[in-house]
Amino acid sequence: MELSRWSRKAKVLVISFLAAAFAVTAGFALQGHRRAEGYRQLLQNGYEHAFSELTTAVSELDTALQKGVYATSPALISSLCTEIFGKAMSAQMAIGELPYGNVELEQTASFVAKVGDYAMALSRSAAVNGGYSDTERETLRGLSESASALSGLLLSLQEELYSGTVRLEDLEVVQARLSAATEEGQELAGGSFQTIEADFPEVPTLIYDGPFSEHLTDRSPKQLEGRGQVTEEESRQAAADFLGLKSDLFTLASTGEGQLPTYGFSALVDGGELYVEVTRAGGLVVELMNSRAVGEAALSQEEGAQAAQDFLAQKGYTDLAPTYYIQQAGTLTVNFAAVQEGVLCYPDLIKVEVALDNGRIVGFEAAGYLMNHTLRDLAAPAVSLEEAQAEVSPDLTVLSTALTLIPTGGEYEVLCHEFKCESPDGRHYLVYVNAQTGEEERILLLLEDENGTLVL
């Protein structure tokens, strides 16, 4: 009896120890699974970031190639070829971070590498020969078409990735689709070149910000020179007067520093929150934002643009002309540039956003104008319109012209003949030819639809 009782106790102890062991093992397994799942998620996030970088790089490579086809001056060809090379190398680096790497996507990696190195070869050739040969231009055009196809497929894959219908681990799907896009491009790219690593990142700019809106230099704001400092209360009154409201509606929300020191005020008006920034020198409004929900559009784009221009005229801005616009979320944003002696001055920019449900102003931004606007000593063009137009690629049809002032990469400005052109495939470009030297200064690609215009 005693032995039997101890035998039962032993069985219970063994079962208890086994159960505990199983529980501990299960706990470790669960913990390991969670840790593995965490690592997998981190890896997936890294893959998605790399794929996004690849999509952006190829899209920008496509844009640079399209512009490069129509460049004629050696200086601009060299600049665009350097940009093409940088975008191609950025795409290569992104491919190297993807799970399929250069093995599964060998044709895609080979294509972008050859495009980059071919661009560098073209840059050297153009410097020696004064431009492209017919064969080089046609090869570049073919590469542009292949890059456009590849960019389209990448964007399509990205949409499927975001919707969850495709995962980055689906190697066969991705490989098959991207390989199909680059087979033609491989043939057009020519022979093998040594791949050189480089990176020149650049983000396309919205044209409603103006083609050159990112040009705000470190010099002091020209419109604030000689203006005295204003108090907080005077700034509050300036904000209220700008909108035709009572000053006691506004409360101090911020104080900004930098090139344009400001007071920022907020107010609850018209079903939304207003935010207005006023410069501490001179008490000029530099920015306005209204967060109210905008209803269904009742005004056309033409009516919205007129409302924006009328608003500027009421505020004393009479030397401005509307240039580009974009419509989104029920509002129309119109970009205005200063005009002096018939010259469109792109550095002097003001944006006005109009709510298309009632025509009221819900946005205003004048940093470019306050920084750059001044009365300039404009020299007469040394190069006639006809002479400048001769520098435009013969493959482009000129639709309209204008005399413009554009910023350089530094703090200077260049007087240019602007040509809005159309390519044989219906794309629109802006070509800028220096009005003093006759050299091409810049080429921009326009993307236009019913909502407005983008520039790349």
Written account of the structure:
With 456 residues, this protein is an alpha+beta fold. 45% of the residues lie in helices and 23% in strands. It contains ten helices and 13 strands. Helix 1 packs antiparallel against helix 2, helix 1 runs antiparallel to helix 5 and helix 5 runs antiparallel to helix 6. The chain is globular. The termini are far apart. 37% of the residues are buried. About 7% of the residues have low confidence.
Keywords:
13-stranded mixed beta sheet; 456 residues; 45% helix; alpha+beta; single chain; 23% strand
Write the layout of secondary structure elements.
Blueprint: H1 2-69, H2 74-96, H3 101-104, H4 106-129, H5 134-163, H6 171-189, H7 232-243, E1 251-256, E2 262-269, E3 272-279, E4 285-290, H8 301-314, E5 320-328, E6 331-340, E7 343-355, E8 361-365, H9 367-372, H10 385-389, E9 397-407, E10 413-422, E11 428-434, E12 440-449, E13 452-455
Parallel strand pairs: 7-9
Antiparallel strand pairs: 1-2, 2-3, 3-4, 4-8, 5-6, 6-7, 7-8, 9-10, 10-11, 11-12, 12-13
Helix pairs in contact: 1-2, 1-5, 2-4, 4-6, 5-6
Tell me the span between the first and last alpha carbons.
94 Å
Shape: globular
Biggest β-sheet strands, sense, barrel: 13 strands, mixed
Q: How much beta, percentage-wise?
A: 15-25%
Helix count equals 10
User: Roughly how much helix do the residues carry, as a percent range?
Assistant: 40-55%
Q: How many whole angstroms does the radius of gyration measure?
A: 30 Å
The average pLDDT score comes to: 78
Structural class: alpha+beta
Order of helices and strands: HHHHHHHEEEEHEEEEHHEEEEE
Enumerate the spans where pLDDT stays under 50 for 5 or more consecutive residues.
36-43, 184-208
SS elements, strand count: 13
